[in-house]
Amino acid sequence: MIKIIVIEDERIKRITMSQALKKANYHVNDFGNPVVALKYFKNNGADLVISDIRMEDLDGFEVLEKVKQINSATDVILMTAFGTIESAVNAMKKGAYDFITKPFSSEELILLVQKYEKLKNLLDENILLKKILEDRYSFHNLIGKSKVMIDLFDQIEMVSSSEMSVLIEGESGTGKEVVANAIHYNSDRKEKPFIKLSCAALNESLLESELFGHEKGAFTGAYKEKQGRFEVADGGTLFLDDIDDIPLSSQVKLLRVLQEREFERVGATKPTKVNVRIICATKVDLWELVEKKQFREDLFYRLRVIPIRIPPLRERKEDIPLLVEHFLIKSKKEKLHFTPEALELLTCYNWPGNIRQLENAVYRISAFTKTNEVTRDMIPEDLICGKEQPIKFSIYNNDKIDLQKFIEKIEKETIEWALARTDHNQSKAAEILKLKRTTLRDKMKKFDVH
Ligand SMILES: Nc1ncnc2c1ncn2[C@@H]1O[C@H](COP(=O)(O)OP(=O)(O)OP(=O)(O)O)[C@@H](O)[C@H]1O
Ligand SMILES: [Mg+2]
Q1: Do the domains 159-311 and 3-125 match in fold?
Q2: In a mutational test of the pocket of ligand 1, which residue from 155, 313, 324, 356 has the highest number of ligand atoms less than 8 Å from its CB?
Q3: Alpha helices per DSSP H over 368-436
Q4: Are the C-beta atoms of residues 255 and 298 closer than 8 Å to each other?
Q5: Mean pLDDT over the full length of the chain
Q6: DSSP string, 125-192
Q7: How large is the average pLDDT for residues 312-316?
Q8: CA 224 to chain centre
């Protein structure tokens, strides 16, 4: 309930105002003397002070100044006499919330206070939301208030202090890298390096030289000796992204480091000892690869000592409004807000690209918004659930069909669809098409798709 202090030296007016406000369910204290009122305010506080301007001991402007000194969050409405527009302007300049011109009816006063209450609630909600984002629902750059995310924060907290290997499993864009970061920076190793290597698209020899380093002259082109990521990460954490992409032959070598904590640089004869904690991430089900004999079972168990699964965004849609707010703040567009209807629409959509897709969508929408509000009709068509454009091909009006050409047309359009859906991220597009990245690239070249 809003707490109001009324300061008015004319007794009848004061009592009328006070009674009207109490009747409208506000908590009111009224005073005839501004000095006494300020003393009360200092000890008890208030949300709103409504004060007369012309009074004996202290005028309304002084009251305004003192109130703001005591608590700048308290608002002041000044009562000005009819015809003194100048003092009204003055009041606003000095930081009054509003003014009301005498004489006024009780209804007018209540309306003004109700308007104030509405605004205050909105502001409070906004501040609360931002505060929530800052503390309760955020954990090392991870935002979420759904049960699964709160559980995930707990899990990260617990595993951080351990030395065991972690396997992070999650679809593209779910936050695997952010989680790996959170584990490292929440652990005792946080002062030591956090080193990342993506195993995707690295052939065996490149991968091994990246992981273990090499001696000078180990192979053609090895002009200088080079430290591998294992050495650089010594004492800290090594994050191996897309671990499912690591060739079978390199898997043996990785297994050995995990077992013996030592390895040889390419071309070296002596082993190097390291103390590194391993965190891996995968988009695909590693066990399926084990079954297909594409991933070693012993390595699988070594890496998956602690599994952490990040749920896709569609399984925690209640986080969407919070995430939207977070990305608006992140891109310095905190003044912008999405209407509840617009948010509802975003919550209906399934987000195959998960948080990354949501993040890009928020940036894209806010870049094109000229007002302070994003309404339902400003949400792009491709994000409206059930409205994704079906790819249609008609064969009814043809007598003959060149099957090869027809299939190529479907291929081309499907590739264009995948690229549009992933903001032209080729590796993501390849993933949703279940193609190798190189195959996708070849096809794009063939069909002249950019
Ligand atoms: N819970 C979260 N709260 C806030 N931002 C998040 C959250 N999860 C992910 N993000 C943001 O989403 C984007 C994608 O996250 P990240 O790169 O960690 O995903 P990923 O799972 O590693 O994706 P990929 O599989 O494509 O490598 C980043 O910009 C990241 O900051
Ligand atoms: Mg990643």
Answers
A1: yes
A2: 356
A3: 403-421, 426-432
A4: yes
A5: 88
A6: HHHHHHHHHHTTTEETTEE--SHHHHHHHHHHHHHHTS-S-EEEE--TTSSHHHHHHHHHHTSTTTTS
A7: 93
A8: 43
Structure tokens at 19: 């009674």
Give the residue among 415, 355, 364 at the shortest CA–CA distance from 391. Answer: 415
Class of domain 3-125: alpha beta
* Banded model confidence at residue 396, pLDDT cuts 50, 70, 90: low
pLDDT tens digits, residue range 27-52?
Answer: 999 999 999 999 999 999 999 999 99
Domain 159-311 has CATH 3.40.50.150: no
Sketch the domain layout of the chain as residue ranges: 3-125, 159-311, 314-383, 403-447
Q: How much is the average pLDDT of 409-428?
A: 85
Ligand located closest to 176 CA: 1
Give the range among 47-56, 153-162, 418-427 with minimum mean pLDDT: 418-427
Q: Which two tokens stand for residue 1?
A: 């309930």
Contact 100 CB / ligand 1 (< 6 Å): no
CB of 178 closer than 6 angstroms to any ligand 1 atom = yes
> Mapping DSSP to helix (H, G, I), strand (E, B) and coil, where does residue 358 land?
helix
Of the chain, the end-to-end C-alpha distance in Å amounts to: 59
Residue with tokens 């584990």: 183
Helix (H) or strand (E) holding 200: none
**Counting atoms of ligand 1 from 1, which one is nearest the CA of 358?**
12
Name the pTM for this structure.
0.63
Query: Do 331 and 364 form a contact (C-beta atoms < 8 A)?
Result: no
Residue 136 has pLDDT above 70, yes or no: no
Looking up tokens 């006024």, which residue turns up? 104
Q: Hey, what are 51's tokens? A: 């004060």
What pLDDT is recorded for position 218?
80
CB-based neighbours (< 5 A) of ligand 2, an ion: 176-177
pLDDT of residue 16: 96
Amino acid at 131: K
Decide if pLDDT at 392 tops 60. no
- Catalogue the long-range contacts made by 61-70 (C-beta closer than 8 Å, 24 or more residues apart): 61/90, 61/91, 61/94, 62/34, 63/7, 63/34, 63/37, 63/38, 64/91, 64/94, 64/95, 64/96, 65/94, 66/38, 67/38, 67/41, 68/95, 70/38, 70/41, 70/42
314-383 has which fold? Helicase, Ruva Protein; domain 3 (1.10.8)
Query: For tokens 């000044």, what's the residue?
Result: 78
Residue 131: the pLDDT is 59
pLDDT band at 255 (very low <50, low <70, confident <90, very high): very high
